[in-house]
# Entry
Amino acid sequence: MNSLKISEIKKETKDSCVLRFEIPQNLKSEFTYLPGQFLTLSFDIDGKKVNRCYSLSSSPYENVLEVGVKRVEGGLVSNYINDTLKVGDYVNVLKPAGDFCIQIEEKSNVNYYLFAAGSGITPMLSILKSILEKEKGNVYLLYGNSTHDSIMFFDEIEYYQNKFKERLHVVHTLSQESRDSFWSGRIEPKSIKNFLNEKELANSKFFICGPGKMIENTNKALLDLGVVNDSIFFESFGSTISSEKYLNLDKATVDFSIDGACDSVTLNSNQTLLRAIMDKGYNPKFSCEAGVCKVCICTLEEGEVEMLNNGCLSDEEVKARKILSCQSVAKTPILKVTF
Ligand SMILES: Cc1cc2nc3c(=O)[nH]c(=O)nc-3n(C[C@H](O)[C@H](O)[C@H](O)COP(=O)(O)OP(=O)(O)OC[C@H]3O[C@@H](n4cnc5c(N)ncnc54)[C@H](O)[C@@H]3O)c2cc1C
Ligand code: FES
# Structure
């Protein structure tokens, strides 16, 4: 973990901001990244250590480290960042990570279809800029927002549209406002079908980013339209669904062993395993707290859990009863886990 100084903050929309970090010379190699990767920012808020992932909206070719953060209603960190941080502040940042990214191949003419909703534009912007600047294929962006004012990076996208008129095709779709030259509604099967150029599907890759439900629907729509599974990539930014939806229990008892110690804790309906064990005073390893890094992995010896997001465990690991403690809520009243 490194402490990086904020060199610039820009208000992007009413509900979002863009942060740029200064990268000291000695950390340059540590902070190289691939288009689509994210940073994990770590804060101490009201005595609680919290980590959150934010995708890099900059392209590695710009020599900049930039993230865009949109407020989530009631959200701890996104509001803290938008309300509190200022230029000159230092933030603890983990080096770039994540598999939702591309390797640039300068001779490639593969086309990219990008589907983004809300703040899901951040990794897409990095991918879009990198492909346009370094590869030869076309880029198609279908970007969904509620209103025109809530569109992040609108001007920057326009800049690239003007610069790469022949290769970048952007459609904005608005769910709560109608405007000339914008589509209406959310990203859904009908708009996806209208958006795709059937002649190009075989030579294309498809990237989806946004809330869980949007990803599920877009993925399904693409498969229904004949897109091959292996060419679809997605990243979930988290879910509005509260864990309570999965849990019919008020409480569960968890026996756990960690670093040679054995103990037990009561898990409330809105708590993840990781947070319950931390609240008991233990320090289980964790990083993203979003189901994408695997650092919080443990083995479920007894009982059943629901993982709110599993963006990194393989099928084999799930079969072997490995779970992500940061995403696990109880489905049975008794659980036993080993770290
Ligand atoms: C790999 C990755 C990359 C990400 N990149 C970005 C990015 O570039 N820009 C960005 O703004 N965010 C990004 N996020 C989301 C970000 O990490 C946080 O989850 C988000 O800022 C909310 O954190 P919070 O502390 O404000 O909310 P919390 O206090 O954690 O949550 C408050 C409530 O909001 C719900 N919630 C949590 N996350 C979301 C969400 N994303 N959308 C809707 N509801 C949510 C929770 O279920 C809870 O009910 C990314 C997430 C991941 C996993
Ligand atoms: S802390 Fe990253 S997956 Fe749990």
The radius of gyration is 21 Å. The chain has three domains: 2-97, 111-236, 243-338. The first strand starts at residue 2 and ends at 13. The mean pLDDT is 93.
